[in-house]
Protein 1
Amino acid sequence: MKRISLTQYLVEQQRQSNALTAELRLLIEVVARACKTISHSVGKGALGDILGSADTENIQGEVQKKLDVISNEILLEANEWGGHLAAMASEEMETIHPIPNRYPMGEYLLMFDPLDGSSNIDVNVSIGTIFSVLKAPEGMGQPTEQAFLQPGTAQVAAGYAVYGPQTMLVLTTGNGVNCFTLDREMGSWVLTQRDMKIPEDTKEFAINMSNKRHWHPPVQRYVDEMLEGKTGPRGKDFNMRWIASMVADVHRILNRGGIFMYPADLRDPASPGKLRLMYEANPMAMIVEQAGGAATDGHGRILDIPPTKLHQRVPVFLGSKNEVEVVTRYHGE
Ligand code: AHM
Ligand code: MG
């Protein structure tokens, strides 16, 4: 079979659709290159002195792992000089990162979770990088946090890299979802799955069950009914998977269906769920919708949520369309 590289795929996209500009193509290639570097560090593990804590905290009060910090640095450095970006924002930085004056300023905004699934770093379980691309508002001048506060529907590209047994890059520019596998010997991304589609029905769910006692009634009901299996109201047996790396859970769902949930719960009303809207929920919601799935916060589409702050958290229900529809309907009843 003829191998198509990421570069070739992007050039073809650029020729076919006007949506993919030369700047956006460069941006995606640079992000993909940074992910390659992160993958290389991840692969070294203890041999690269990248495991363990960095002994610092991020804006969310979470202890940063060395690899969180390293991955953030790799993405910042890779994306600063190309002239394609106006600013960046990251899970690991309190405020936005404008492009230094010595470089030209471009028209895009890049957001990322540099290393998602941090609790899995030290135990050699799949982790990943998630990214989201927006256009800077016209005539913005110096970028501010406000420029980033656009709903997910405004994303022009989104993707993730998963560092597992294989390193893969899953990408959408609003024209379906494609998957590239890193050829580690050649150092290039090769198109390995075209137009990924999530099955509409599923018998597999993903949720951290240890939080069950804190869930709101609609989530309790939904999960209880699945657990009742064949003889319960759902009339079928369900299986459960929870990797604790959103990238890995979403990647499984893209390949064979499923529903992923990180609901809000009763513990802290000020904190609706764990996952962050701008650089976790929105890019994943765009990918999932582009693959024919659905993504809601239990009430409405994640992509329609008007953001109020950079590190805002949201409840997340995403994956196979018909299951997301059931749990969302229970929230309304
Ligand atoms: P992180 O960005 O700090 O790694 O946190 C996000 C991760 C998701 O990848 C995953 O779905 C979730 O946290 C797991 O949470 P929990 O440890 O509560 O199961
Ligand atoms: Mg994360």
Protein 2
Amino acid sequence: MTIDSEENRLPCGTKVARKLRARVPVNSLTMNQRKAVGIDLGTTFSAVAHIDAYGKPQIVPNSESERITPSVILFDGSNVIVGTTAKNNAMAEPEKIVDFVKREMGKPKEQFHREFSGKIYSAEELSALILKKLKLDAEKYLKEPITDAVITVPAYFNDAERTATITAGQLAGFNVLQIINEPTAAALAYGLDKLEEDQTVFVFDLGGGTFDVTIMRIEGHHINMIATNGDHRLGGKDWDDSIVNFVAEEFDRQHGENPLLDLQSYQELHTRALSAKIQLSSRPQTAVIHHHSGKSVKLEITREEFERRSQHLVEKCKTICEMVMQESRMTWDKIDKVLLVGGMTRMPMVRALVGQLTQAPVIDDVNPDEAVAMGASIQAILSLLEEERLSGEKVLPENTRDQFAGRDGGLIQVTNITSHTLGVVLWDEAQLEEYVFPMIRKMTAIPATAKNSFGTAMANMQRAVVRVVEGESTLPGECTPLGICDVELPSFLPKGSPVELTYEYNANQVLEISVEACGNRAKVSIERNTGLAPGEVAQAIANLGSLRVA
Ligand code: AMP
């Protein structure tokens, strides 16, 4: 642990104790009857599911009667339109459109924002508008207010991205019960009826903007996450862009002009490329026509050529799959089933990759677009049941409680693991350099708590600044800084006095920190250098309240 000035550094020193223990998450809302949904907040599409009167997860259609809603926002003055209408307008009014906002989650406003009618919107606020539309439509369909939600995130999302997703849910008016990993949700949806068959499942989740692989073990009523890896900037859009670039190169070759410099032209071409990509999943060839500034180009694209041009993307997926196998210390023959999630897994080249990696059968009876939301809706009921158990207050409809609690052998239990190492920056007195000490290592079962004591470097140190980082490296520069905790120390501490640092990683994989020096224990909030600052949240609620979302 180092502190703010050189004179006040704490040495890497004296590790006193380290302990990991499980902790049960507690939720504080105490209202009577509640209605919870599961939400797959996707890069390109989002979906909502709930548990019906028979205890089964069901997709909740939106007000356009669609089972999935494009995660696209159209700003039209104080009206905000989310979904297909916005998507269809992307070509005509690209300057009024926001899409792929999931890729920006966790970034501070200075790094990512969009401005409409003089107002600035962060990634959380934009995501909140998508969630608001999903909430309003679900309330209309189910004819009751929705109070709670479980929202899914890629397993590989980091602390900043998870925190931003929780904030987005709250801004949309949800009590966010939990943030769960998309592959865990898919495994829940898949596993609900198969809990008696012990098996190891490889979840391959390639969506519109993110790629996640997770190894899960289903054993009795336990679903345990064994390992996870991924790339949150690898997804369908990259395959779309390979077609976009192919057509743009041809346009440039024929007309000496880059059609991508014009936003409208790019949007048009992207829409055509996406449709060509989907066609190439079932046809050996297709054609893309693109018009721009009075000129046009027609390009025949074969599946073979498309696959050649996007081979590097499949290679990236392959590397990540191999990395997760290594991390889990497993071999492919130990995988019993492959669960494909995300629309991109319909692509033949992706299926071919999976077949090349493992002979394990692919599970086909789960809809890759809907499984995640359905699994999240199951988790929502599990979370509320846990709340009922802890508080003694009944908040679920009786039939739902009976159907879930009454399953043979008891409730489903899900154990997740951390997807990144959480560390603290320390000062190495011998080497005279900073390094990262891992407090909670990647692949630790969560919720988890880790405690370590470090000695003060000198007498009468006034403050300690705990620098919290996330990442696998021991070099601070190679990790992602999460923020700092600035802690006042008691006066007149002798050199080497123990300062105990506790990292608590909750079920949402969001970190809380406390510091204890000379018996004074203080919970310190991390001043995150990501996402919305606490003071900006009230402003964001006011901002969003003035918009009409449909
Ligand atoms: P998701 O985020 O899971 O909804 O995945 C959406 C992504 O899957 C988008 O990039 C879609 O273009 C892509 N997708 C959906 N269906 C197909 C298909 N049949 N072939 C290729 N890509 C598809």
